[in-house]
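Question thread 4412

I'm putting together a teaching handout and wanted feedback from people who do this every day. The idea is simple: show students a protein as raw sequence, then show them the structure tokens that encode its fold, then repeat with a second protein so they can compare. Below is the first pair exactly as I plan to print it.
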Amino acid sequence: MTADPSILRRSEFFRALADGELAALQACVVVRELAAGTVVFQDGDPGAAMLIVAEGSLSAHVRRKGGGEQEINRMGPGEAVGEMSFIDPAPRSATVRAITRAVVYELSEDGMRALRRQAPAAAGAVVGAVIQDVTRRLRRIDQMIERELREREGVSADAR
């Protein structure tokens, strides 16, 4: 089974690719079918691939301090998971499971090396899109921290 280019095109990571670059990417991804409940990544696993959801849905969970897990994100068709692996080889920060039967397109380190050889501009565009995504997340986290600090300052100022 080969990756559907229309699904790849839905992902923000691949929208800017020219048709030839998208075809090169399509040749570098592996299509994986997942049964509902399948653990895709485990918290602490080495990061070695990113996935684009083609069908179904995935859920990311983190461990709670007191035990158990908390869902932090759900991903559906066109969305990516594990993309930070391309810029930071740190262990996975969450466990990801298939909520439903799912089909994902996996771009592994080997696939990325092949893409760099076959279509360097496409590989550069993918890495650039990942960096933009991570930057957006950092800004959002920074805003959340600032808002929390302002709220705490407001509480302590009122308590005086």
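The second pair follows. I'd like the answer to focus on this one:
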Amino acid sequence: MLSLRLCAALLVVSTRILFAAGIPRSDGQVTFTTRDGGGAASQLWRLRTGAAGAKPELLNPSFDALAPYPGFHSGPITVSADGAWYIFASTRFDPTQVGYLALALCRSDFSAAESVQYTDTNGVLTVIHHEGMPVVSAGGSNIVFGGRGPHLLDLYRMHRLAVGWSVPLLLTADSPNNYNYWPSLSPDGTRVVFNSGNDPYVSTNLAEVRLDGSGFRILITKDGGPPGMEVGPSVHSPSYGPDGSLVFEAEWGGGETVWRLPAGGGPPVKVRADFNNDNSPVVLPDGRIVSLLEGGFHQVKVMDLDGQNARVLTPQDAPGFSDVADIGVGCGALWVPSLDLQADAGELEVVWPVRFGSYTLQGVVSLPGGRAWSNLATGTNSFRLPGTSPFRFFRLVR
């Protein structure tokens, strides 16, 4: 069997890869939180979704290396769709916030981190103290987070300026409900979908609004299940699919299950009938669904948009993984290049994400040792070679 290897990491991925919308299935990551002995402090993690046997990476040490002030970090943590930015809470990136959790952003290569701040109308530099799960757009240009407002809990949007951030813009002014939270950005970054209801713990509606605060609408309610099915108490955790569908959690017919509202209309469809304690779904850029499967404790699970090829990603017996916190999961593209291989008409095609098109693909016949690596392609994100090619290992270099 042909194998692929990626740079110095020597990442081996299977050749049995399928593609969705031109995106390699190995190009995905999940971010999640585990509790660190109670209180506000958390352990924040990221995990590859495509590499078999991949181990979660604890992010706290990398954040600590960038943080000049004492304190701790806290979840939930989410990641931008392009995999380049993490957003979470921390006391460690601003001297005025020591001991107080503030909204924080960090690049996924750990080259920079910041406490989100803006200058208010009185010229005072103000740090954001948010509530619930925040999200950040691809490119790190927009953030959406929860806070107090005309309602008991509202959503706000800020965009990056040449220096600092804009004044927060209220997004949920037109909501009829007291609690508006758990945002998820659309793939094009122009809209946000979220939980909405009059109970802080029970969302009875899924709503949508544009990032300029216009176009508020209710997408589906707790009564919007398939005809004839038992009504559930809530609809929760919405996330856009790349095909325009909406994926979310509901309890229609009993049990917490993942549902999908088709983009073209019609009743919602249960994604997988045999998972009846499946929580907090989010959708990867390639369309796969990540969720928390509960069986005494929560584990991170990934499955196709139609529920096939489900597998658990987090270990059951590792320290810190007795329970993944059900406070919000993030997903996006991978933070480093990934390589996939597919066979087509007697040829092989090596594919990697477009955003790493500046890398050079190299091949070699055997490892370890063997001949020197040969340059195969630069300035692209794919390379075709005959099935008889002697190259059996590949890497990307920069």
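Top answer:
Good format. For the second protein you could add a caption like this: The two ends are 27 Å apart (CA to CA). The chain has two domains: 1-26+337-398, 28-332.
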